[in-house]
Design brief:
By secondary structure, this protein is α+β, with helices and mostly antiparallel strands. It is about 25% helix and about 20% strand. The protein binds zinc ion (ZN).
Protein backbone atom coordinates (compact mmCIF):
# COMPACT_ATOMS: atom_id res chain seq x y z
CA UNK A 1 0.00 0.00 0.00
CA UNK A 2 -0.46 2.40 -1.68
CA UNK A 3 -0.65 0.76 -5.11
CA UNK A 4 -1.30 2.12 -8.59
CA UNK A 5 -4.89 3.37 -8.02
CA UNK A 6 -3.99 5.19 -4.81
CA UNK A 7 -0.91 6.81 -6.35
CA UNK A 8 -2.82 7.74 -9.50
CA UNK A 9 -5.40 9.39 -7.22
CA UNK A 10 -2.62 11.27 -5.41
CA UNK A 11 -1.21 12.52 -8.73
CA UNK A 12 -4.62 13.66 -9.97
CA UNK A 13 -5.30 15.24 -6.58
CA UNK A 14 -2.20 17.42 -6.75
CA UNK A 15 -2.69 18.39 -10.42
CA UNK A 16 -2.96 22.05 -9.37
CA UNK A 17 0.79 21.99 -8.62
CA UNK A 18 1.56 21.82 -12.33
CA UNK A 19 2.89 25.15 -13.57
CA UNK A 20 3.68 26.41 -10.06
CA UNK A 21 7.12 27.48 -8.85
CA UNK A 22 8.80 26.13 -5.73
CA UNK A 23 9.38 29.02 -3.32
CA UNK A 24 10.33 27.13 -0.16
CA UNK A 25 10.99 23.62 1.03
CA UNK A 26 11.55 22.47 4.60
CA UNK A 27 11.34 19.58 7.00
CA UNK A 28 8.76 20.42 9.66
CA UNK A 29 9.75 20.02 13.30
CA UNK A 30 9.31 16.31 13.97
CA UNK A 31 10.14 14.26 17.09
CA UNK A 32 10.30 11.04 15.08
CA UNK A 33 13.20 9.47 13.23
CA UNK A 34 13.44 11.50 10.02
CA UNK A 35 12.55 9.88 6.71
CA UNK A 36 15.27 9.49 4.10
CA UNK A 37 15.55 12.56 1.87
CA UNK A 38 18.30 12.66 -0.83
CA UNK A 39 20.11 14.96 -1.24
CA UNK A 40 19.88 16.42 2.25
CA UNK A 41 17.27 19.08 2.72
CA UNK A 42 19.64 22.08 2.63
CA UNK A 43 20.98 20.96 -0.78
CA UNK A 44 17.54 20.00 -2.00
CA UNK A 45 16.30 23.47 -1.13
CA UNK A 46 19.06 25.10 -3.19
CA UNK A 47 18.45 22.84 -6.15
CA UNK A 48 14.71 23.35 -6.14
CA UNK A 49 14.06 26.92 -5.10
CA UNK A 50 12.75 28.76 -8.14
CA UNK A 51 12.18 25.57 -10.14
CA UNK A 52 8.91 25.26 -12.03
CA UNK A 53 6.90 22.05 -11.87
CA UNK A 54 6.31 21.05 -15.46
CA UNK A 55 4.46 17.81 -14.92
CA UNK A 56 3.13 15.44 -12.32
CA UNK A 57 3.77 11.87 -13.32
CA UNK A 58 3.04 8.50 -11.81
CA UNK A 59 5.90 6.06 -12.18
CA UNK A 60 4.58 2.66 -11.05
CA UNK A 61 3.65 3.15 -7.42
CA UNK A 62 5.32 6.53 -6.92
CA UNK A 63 4.31 10.13 -7.65
CA UNK A 64 6.97 12.22 -9.39
CA UNK A 65 7.26 15.98 -9.92
CA UNK A 66 9.17 16.86 -13.09
CA UNK A 67 10.88 20.24 -12.97
CA UNK A 68 12.03 22.64 -15.69
CA UNK A 69 15.62 21.96 -14.58
CA UNK A 70 15.66 18.45 -15.99
CA UNK A 71 15.24 16.93 -12.55
CA UNK A 72 12.55 14.81 -10.97
CA UNK A 73 11.45 14.82 -7.36
CA UNK A 74 10.47 11.23 -6.64
CA UNK A 75 8.24 10.40 -3.67
CA UNK A 76 8.30 6.79 -2.54
CA UNK A 77 5.20 6.36 -0.34
CA UNK A 78 6.07 2.73 0.63
CA UNK A 79 3.60 1.72 3.38
CA UNK A 80 1.94 4.90 4.60
CA UNK A 81 3.23 7.91 2.63
CA UNK A 82 0.73 10.50 1.37
CA UNK A 83 0.91 13.65 -0.71
CA UNK A 84 -1.57 16.28 0.42
CA UNK A 85 -2.75 19.72 -0.50
CA UNK A 86 -5.04 19.88 2.55
CA UNK A 87 -4.41 19.67 6.28
CA UNK A 88 -2.73 16.32 7.09
CA UNK A 89 -4.31 13.61 9.28
CA UNK A 90 -1.97 14.87 12.07
CA UNK A 91 1.05 17.18 12.24
CA UNK A 92 3.16 14.66 14.14
CA UNK A 93 3.95 12.62 11.02
CA UNK A 94 4.43 15.49 8.60
CA UNK A 95 7.77 14.91 6.86
CA UNK A 96 8.27 17.56 4.17
CA UNK A 97 6.57 20.83 3.17
CA UNK A 98 6.93 22.43 -0.25
CA UNK A 99 5.55 25.91 -0.81
CA UNK A 100 4.43 26.66 -4.34
CA UNK A 101 3.62 29.95 -6.05
CA UNK A 102 1.06 29.77 -8.86
CA UNK A 103 1.86 31.16 -12.31
CA UNK A 104 -1.36 33.17 -12.13
CA UNK A 105 -0.96 35.68 -9.31
CA UNK A 106 -4.70 35.83 -8.75
CA UNK A 107 -4.59 32.26 -7.47
CA UNK A 108 -3.40 31.46 -3.98
CA UNK A 109 -0.15 29.76 -3.04
CA UNK A 110 -0.16 26.01 -2.46
CA UNK A 111 1.38 23.93 0.26
CA UNK A 112 2.32 20.44 -0.88
CA UNK A 113 2.86 18.12 2.07
CA UNK A 114 4.45 14.71 2.38
CA UNK A 115 3.02 12.87 5.38
CA UNK A 116 4.11 9.41 6.44
CA UNK A 117 2.94 7.65 9.60
CA UNK A 118 5.42 4.78 9.57
CA UNK A 119 8.22 6.83 8.10
CA UNK A 120 9.44 4.23 5.61
CA UNK A 121 8.84 6.53 2.65
CA UNK A 122 11.62 8.43 0.91
CA UNK A 123 12.05 11.55 -1.21
CA UNK A 124 14.77 11.73 -3.86
CA UNK A 125 15.79 14.36 -6.38
CA UNK A 126 17.13 12.66 -9.51
CA UNK A 127 18.62 14.04 -12.68
CA UNK A 128 17.84 12.47 -16.04
CA UNK A 129 20.51 9.76 -15.94
CA UNK A 130 19.93 8.81 -12.30
CA UNK A 131 16.20 8.57 -13.02
CA UNK A 132 16.84 6.31 -15.99
CA UNK A 133 19.24 4.16 -13.97
CA UNK A 134 16.91 3.79 -10.99
CA UNK A 135 13.44 3.88 -12.50
CA UNK A 136 13.91 3.50 -16.24
CA UNK A 137 12.66 0.65 -18.41
CA UNK A 138 15.52 -1.59 -17.27
CA UNK A 139 14.23 -1.43 -13.72
CA UNK A 140 10.51 -1.06 -14.16
CA UNK A 141 8.16 -2.98 -16.43
CA UNK A 142 5.38 -1.39 -18.50
CA UNK A 143 2.68 0.33 -16.48
CA UNK A 144 -0.11 -2.01 -15.37
CA UNK A 145 -2.77 0.28 -16.88
CA UNK A 146 -1.12 0.04 -20.30
CA UNK A 147 0.44 -3.41 -20.47
CA UNK A 148 -0.90 -5.67 -23.22
CA UNK A 149 -1.58 -9.38 -22.90
CA UNK A 150 1.34 -10.20 -25.20
CA UNK A 151 3.74 -7.99 -23.20
CA UNK A 152 2.63 -9.67 -20.01
CA UNK A 153 3.04 -13.11 -21.52
CA UNK A 154 6.42 -12.23 -23.00
CA UNK A 155 7.70 -11.04 -19.63
CA UNK A 156 6.33 -13.78 -17.41
CA UNK A 157 5.47 -16.90 -19.41
CA UNK A 158 8.89 -18.51 -18.95
CA UNK A 159 8.82 -17.99 -15.19
CA UNK A 160 8.15 -20.89 -12.86
CA UNK A 161 6.83 -18.54 -10.22
CA UNK A 162 3.26 -18.61 -9.00
CA UNK A 163 1.31 -16.03 -10.95
CA UNK A 164 0.22 -13.96 -7.95
CA UNK A 165 3.83 -13.63 -6.80
CA UNK A 166 5.01 -12.77 -10.32
CA UNK A 167 2.44 -10.01 -10.74
CA UNK A 168 4.03 -8.17 -7.79
CA UNK A 169 7.40 -8.08 -9.58
CA UNK A 170 7.74 -4.42 -10.57
CA UNK A 171 10.37 -5.29 -13.21
CA UNK A 172 7.74 -7.32 -15.03
CA UNK A 173 4.79 -4.97 -14.65
CA UNK A 174 4.70 -1.72 -12.69
CA UNK A 175 2.00 -0.70 -10.23
CA UNK A 176 0.36 -3.89 -8.96
CA UNK A 177 0.66 -4.72 -5.25
CA UNK A 178 -0.72 -7.35 -2.93
CA UNK A 179 -4.28 -6.08 -2.73
CA UNK A 180 -4.99 -5.56 -6.42
CA UNK A 181 -3.18 -8.76 -7.47
CA UNK A 182 -5.82 -10.74 -5.55
CA UNK A 183 -8.73 -8.81 -7.06
CA UNK A 184 -7.25 -9.05 -10.58
CA UNK A 185 -6.82 -12.83 -10.42
CA UNK A 186 -10.39 -13.24 -9.19
CA UNK A 187 -11.71 -11.29 -12.18
CA UNK A 188 -9.44 -13.28 -14.49
CA UNK A 189 -10.63 -16.56 -12.87
CA UNK A 190 -7.03 -17.69 -12.40
CA UNK A 191 -5.89 -19.48 -9.25
CA UNK A 192 -3.09 -17.45 -7.58
CA UNK A 193 -0.85 -20.52 -7.24
CA UNK A 194 -0.84 -21.44 -10.89
CA UNK A 195 2.64 -21.32 -12.36
CA UNK A 196 3.31 -18.67 -14.99
CA UNK A 197 4.85 -21.19 -17.39
CA UNK A 198 1.63 -23.22 -17.33
CA UNK A 199 -0.67 -20.37 -18.33
CA UNK A 200 -2.02 -20.14 -21.86
CA UNK A 201 -2.35 -17.19 -24.19
CA UNK A 202 -6.02 -16.98 -23.23
CA UNK A 203 -5.10 -16.88 -19.54
CA UNK A 204 -2.70 -13.98 -20.13
CA UNK A 205 -5.39 -12.17 -22.07
CA UNK A 206 -7.77 -12.60 -19.18
CA UNK A 207 -5.20 -11.34 -16.70
CA UNK A 208 -4.34 -8.26 -18.81
CA UNK A 209 -7.97 -7.34 -19.28
CA UNK A 210 -8.84 -7.94 -15.59
CA UNK A 211 -5.86 -5.76 -14.63
CA UNK A 212 -7.17 -2.79 -16.58
CA UNK A 213 -10.73 -3.33 -15.44
CA UNK A 214 -9.91 -3.60 -11.72
CA UNK A 215 -7.39 -0.76 -11.67
CA UNK A 216 -9.57 1.64 -13.66
CA UNK A 217 -12.52 0.99 -11.41
CA UNK A 218 -10.35 1.43 -8.31
CA UNK A 219 -9.13 4.78 -9.67
CA UNK A 220 -12.75 5.87 -10.17
CA UNK A 221 -13.34 5.16 -6.49
CA UNK A 222 -10.09 6.95 -5.54
CA UNK A 223 -8.36 3.82 -4.24
CA UNK A 224 -8.83 1.69 -1.15
CA UNK A 225 -8.72 2.96 2.43
CA UNK A 226 -8.39 -0.14 4.62
CA UNK A 227 -9.49 -0.54 8.24
CA UNK A 228 -6.35 1.24 9.52
CA UNK A 229 -7.62 4.35 7.72
CA UNK A 230 -4.15 5.39 6.58
CA UNK A 231 -4.61 5.98 2.89
CA UNK A 232 -6.26 9.31 2.02
CA UNK A 233 -6.52 11.31 -1.17
CA UNK A 234 -4.81 14.71 -1.61
CA UNK A 235 -7.66 16.38 0.26
CA UNK A 236 -7.32 14.00 3.21
CA UNK A 237 -10.48 12.09 2.30
CA UNK A 238 -10.87 8.31 2.23
CA UNK A 239 -11.01 6.30 -0.98
CA UNK A 240 -13.98 3.96 -1.38
CA UNK A 241 -12.86 1.02 -3.50
CA UNK A 242 -12.56 -1.05 -0.28
CA UNK A 243 -16.36 -1.34 -0.47
CA UNK A 244 -15.94 -3.08 -3.82
CA UNK A 245 -13.27 -5.63 -2.88
CA UNK A 246 -14.52 -9.07 -3.76
CA UNK A 247 -11.91 -11.25 -2.08
CA UNK A 248 -9.22 -9.11 -0.46
CA UNK A 249 -9.57 -9.19 3.33
CA UNK A 250 -12.78 -11.26 3.12
CA UNK A 251 -11.59 -14.65 4.36
CA UNK A 252 -14.44 -17.16 4.95
CA UNK A 253 -17.03 -14.81 3.46
CA UNK A 254 -19.21 -15.88 0.58
CA UNK A 255 -17.50 -14.91 -2.69
CA UNK A 256 -19.08 -11.73 -4.05
CA UNK A 257 -18.52 -12.95 -7.58
CA UNK A 258 -20.16 -16.40 -7.66
CA UNK A 259 -22.01 -16.38 -4.30
CA UNK A 260 -21.12 -20.07 -3.98
CA UNK A 261 -17.47 -20.35 -2.93
CA UNK A 262 -16.04 -19.09 0.34
CA UNK A 263 -13.00 -16.85 0.17
CA UNK A 264 -9.79 -18.59 1.25
CA UNK A 265 -6.63 -17.05 2.59
CA UNK A 266 -3.22 -18.54 1.88
CA UNK A 267 0.30 -17.16 2.24
CA UNK A 268 2.57 -16.75 -0.78
CA UNK A 269 6.07 -15.29 -0.36
CA UNK A 270 5.12 -14.11 3.13
CA UNK A 271 2.12 -12.14 1.85
CA UNK A 272 -1.53 -12.99 2.35
CA UNK A 273 -3.45 -14.01 -0.76
CA UNK A 274 -7.23 -14.17 -0.94
CA UNK A 275 -9.09 -16.13 -3.61
CA UNK A 276 -12.30 -18.03 -4.36
CA UNK A 277 -11.82 -21.76 -5.02
CA UNK A 278 -14.99 -21.83 -7.12
CA UNK A 279 -14.12 -18.91 -9.39
CA UNK A 280 -10.42 -19.76 -9.44
CA UNK A 281 -9.94 -23.55 -9.65
CA UNK A 282 -6.33 -24.72 -9.44
CA UNK A 283 -6.69 -27.22 -12.27
CA UNK A 284 -8.22 -25.81 -15.43
ZN1 LIG B 1 -16.40 -17.14 -6.45
Amino acid sequence: MPELPEVETMCRGIAACRGTTITALYRPRCQLKPIQIRPQVSTLKKKLRGARIEAIERVGKRPVLRTDRGTRLVFEPRMTGLLLLADPPDTEHLRLCIELAPADRRRSALNLLFWDRRGLGTVRLLNESAFEAQLGSEKLGPDALQISASQLQERLASSQREVKVALLDQRAVAGIGNLYAAEILLFAHIHPQRRCNQLTKVDWRRIASATRRVLQKAIRYEGSTLADGTYRNALNKKGSYQNHHRVYGRESELCRCCRVGRVQRIVQSQRATFFCPECQPLAS
